């Protein structure tokens, strides 16, 4: 197989691996609070919101150290063992205990930091400057199939169930555990890409420098060499964090963390709390998740291709995501009651600005997914391009910023009314878009300099 064909196949395998893994994990996250309520009166006294806070807190704390793991054991094994941690979390619900629930939450936080750092590294080394945008979009589209299949599975499995029995829970979580393990073992089908020849004098000099470093490392013990690589990976992550390019991108990355919390946790809760949606309000949460997934899949597939063909680079896609989210925020503001995020189990009776519409609510779900794919595909592309030689530390910084902002958003979502949460998203989205446009200008300058040096 040609080198380019092997790299493209690796991207496809990576996408399907993550699709299986997150079909299981995202479905678990969507239903865990409902499941917990079904047996919370017994010996189990855990909280889904507390679990998510632990996961994102550990993820953010460990993100800058994750490149050390990826450097020492390689991206493939890093993703495999991290995936097993996700599987442990899902399997815990078969026979849940409070201590194992929170212990597994810590494991997922650790695994997530390593998993996404390694994913960014694999995406980068299997792409070129010309294919990084396409590959980011294709990976994102395949990966987001997990949202569609997971919610559809739960809708079919639990449709018409008023109460979730132990048998219902165990059947679903055994199935989800098996699905997650399929995703883990698919990772072993990824093959190391063939190295590319150095086309310029600068590249040859870099290769000679790497060879010299390699010779120096062989003169020391293997343990010393690994320690040196680990420290180097951590130092690189810290240095990348304060570069001009990453500081500009940090506003966009922070926004994706805030809106991730909103569409994955808050908005579904709002729909389920709307008493005017009738007895089907809770089941609409799954349909909303499917609509979000459709938007993510459409955006990942289409915008990945637009990124390659547009002479304006990534800016048009991010601008479209900015406008799409603003439309969604306005429609949600007038269609959903302000106290919906913090309403009791019985729901809210407060009126919205218009008569609440189920169709409009689900359309907003689609817009949220579409806008999210705009931002994430282009961020994956630009980070992979700007930090090609240090992709693992760069994506570790990416996840650090995103996860810490998600943790902040999960915290304030327990207290703020809907209109205040939307205002935060509007302001963050504006600054995130402006700073992305500035970072893309720098990326275009880097591309022109690279093309000039290869002439």
Automatic annotation (TrEMBL):
The chain crosses the membrane at residues 7-27, 47-70, 77-95, 101-118, 138-160, 172-190, 246-264, 284-306, 318-338, 358-380, 392-412, 418-439. It comes from the Eukaryota. Keywords: Membrane, Transmembrane, Transmembrane helix. This is Major facilitator superfamily (MFS) profile domain-containing protein. Belongs to the unc-93 family. GO terms for cellular component: membrane. It is found in: Membrane. It comes from Takifugu bimaculatus. It is a multi-pass membrane protein.
């Amino acid at each position: 197989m040609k080198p380019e064909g092997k790299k493209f196949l690796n991207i496809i395998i990576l996408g399907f691996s993550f699709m299986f893994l997150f079909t299981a994990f995202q479905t678990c996250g969507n239903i865990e609070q409902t499941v917990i309520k079904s047996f919370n009166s017994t010996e189990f006294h855990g909280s889904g919101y507390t679990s998510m806070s632990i996961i994102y807190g550990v993820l953010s704390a460990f993100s800058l150290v994750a490149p050390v793991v990826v450097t020492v054991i390689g991206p493939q094994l890093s993703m495999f063992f991290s995936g097993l941690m996700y599987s442990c979390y899902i399997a815990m619900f078969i026979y849940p205990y409070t201590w194992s629930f929170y212990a597994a939450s810590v494991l997922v936080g650790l695994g997530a930091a390593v998993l996404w750092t390694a994913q960014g590294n694999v995406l980068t080394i299997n792409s070129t400057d010309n294919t990084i945008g396409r590959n980011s979009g294709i990976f994102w589209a395949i990966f987001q199939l997990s949202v569609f299949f997971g919610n559809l599975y739960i809708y079919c499995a639990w449709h018409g169930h008023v109460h979730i029995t132990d048998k219902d829970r165990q059947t679903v979580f055994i199935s989800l555990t098996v699905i997650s393990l399929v995703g883990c073992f698919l990772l072993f089908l990824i093959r190391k890409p063939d190295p590319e020849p150095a086309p310029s004098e600068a590249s040859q000099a870099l290769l000679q420098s790497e060879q010299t470093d390699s010779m120096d490392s062989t003169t020391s013990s293997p343990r010393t060499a690994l320690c040196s690589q680990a420290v180097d990976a951590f130092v690189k992550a810290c240095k990348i964090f304060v570069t001009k390019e990453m500081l500009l991108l940090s506003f966009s990355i922070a926004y994706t963390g805030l809106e991730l919390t909103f569409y994955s946790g808050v908005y579904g809760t709002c729909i389920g709390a709307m008493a005017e949606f009738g007895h089907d309000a809770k089941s609409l949460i799954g349909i909303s998740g499917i609509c979000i997934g459709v938007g993510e899949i459409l955006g990942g597939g289409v915008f990945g291709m637009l990124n390659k063909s547009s002479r304006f680079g990534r800016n048009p896609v991010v601008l479209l995501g900015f406008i799409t989210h603003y439309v969604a925020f306005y429609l949600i503001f007038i269609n959903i009651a302000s106290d919906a995020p913090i309403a009791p189990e019985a729901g809210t009776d407060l009126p919205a600005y218009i008569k609440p519409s189920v169709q409009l609510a689900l359309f907003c779900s689609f817009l949220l997914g579409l806008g999210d794919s705009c931002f994430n595909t282009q961020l994956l592309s630009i980070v992979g391009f700007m930090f090609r030689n240090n992709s693992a530390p760069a994506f570790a910084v990416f996840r650090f910023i995103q996860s810490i902002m998600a943790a902040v958003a999960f915290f304030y979502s327990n207290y703020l009314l809907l209109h205040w949460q939307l205002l935060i998203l509007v302001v963050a989205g504006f600054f995130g878009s402006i700073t992305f446009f500035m970072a893309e200008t720098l990326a275009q300058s880097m591309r022109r300099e690279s093309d000039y040096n290869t002439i």
